[in-house]
Amino acid sequence: MAIVTRQAYEYGSSPVIFMQSDSSLSTVLHSLFSEHRSWFLEFITLNDAAPDDTLIQPEWSQSTHFNRLLARYSDEIYREHADMLREAKPLQSLWAQWYFGLIVPPMMLALVMEKRALDCSLEHFHLQFHESGRPAKFWIDVQEDEDARYLNAHQRIDRLIQRHLIPAVQGIEQHGDINAKLIWNNTGYLMHWFLGEMKSWVDEATLLTLEHALFFSRHLLDGSDNPLYRTVIPRDGAMQRRSCCQRYRLPAVERCGDCTLKPV
Fold first, then answer.
1. What is the pTM of this model?
2. Contacts of 164 (CB under 8 A, 6+ apart)
3. Contact partners, residue 82, CB within 8 Å, separation at least 6
4. Are strands 135-140 and 44-46 parallel, antiparallel or unpaired?
5. Helical residues (DSSP H) of the chain, grouped into ranges
6. Spatial distance between the Cα atoms of 50 and 135, rounded to a whole number of angstroms
7. Phi then psi for 194, rounded to 5 degrees?
8. What residues in the chain have per-residue pLDDT under 50?
9. Per the database record, which ranges form the Aerobactin siderophore biosynthesis IucA/IucC-like C-terminal domain (predicted)?
C-alpha cells in the first residue's frame, strides 16, 4: 500500500481557518526532522538568531569571503602534503559537496512531506563555517512560502532548484576554478540518493514523478534548461552518477565506492 505523505490531503475540503496548524512551521519541521532524520538537527538550526559569524549567499560568495574560506580549506586538506601541487577544481568540488550535502536532503524532506512549504530563498539561509573553511551549519530563518502551499512535490522541488540551488551554484562557479556542470552532477547524485532514502515515507508515484522530472526532463517548469538533466543515468541495470566528482585528486581522499572511473 502506498504510504500517504503529509501533503496528501484534500485541497479545499475544509475552510482555510481549519487548515491552519497550531504549531509554527519551525516546530513542525523540527519534529519532522527528529522523526525521520534526527541527525539533520546537528547542522540545521530553525528560527534561532544566527550568530555573527554566519553569512548569507550574497556574502559568502563574494571573492573576499570565498577565497579566504577556500584558502583555509586548502591549508587543511594539504596540511600533511606540502609537496603536492594544490588543485582548485577538486577542492571546490568537495567544498560544494559539503554545502549541498548539508542543505539539500533536509529541504527535500521538508518540501515533500510537510503541507506548508518552507521558503527556500537564499536570504533565509545563514551559513556557518567549520574552522577549516568548509560549510558546517545552516541557521534558517523559517518563513512559509504561501504561494507554494498548494503546489505538488514536483512544483516545490522545482522551486527549490530555481530559488536556491541555481544561484548557490552560480555563486561558486563564478570564481572560475570549477564549472557548474560538475557541481550539478554531484548534486544530482545526492538528490537521487535521497529520493531512495524517502521510499519508506513517500508514495511510489510521487518519487517516480520526481525522478523523471529531475533527471529525464530537459527543462524546468518555466521552460528553462534543467541543470540536473542526465546527471544520473541508467547504467548496468541501475541508476548511476554520470561522472566522477574529482575529489579523489585531493590528498588522503579515496575514490567513492561507485566512482565512474575505471579501477587503477
1. 0.89
2. 103, 107, 120, 121, 122, 125
3. none
4. parallel
5. 16-19, 25-36, 57-60, 63-77, 88-113, 153-160, 166-173, 180-197, 204-215
6. 15
7. -75, -25
8. 1-21, 264
9. 93-237
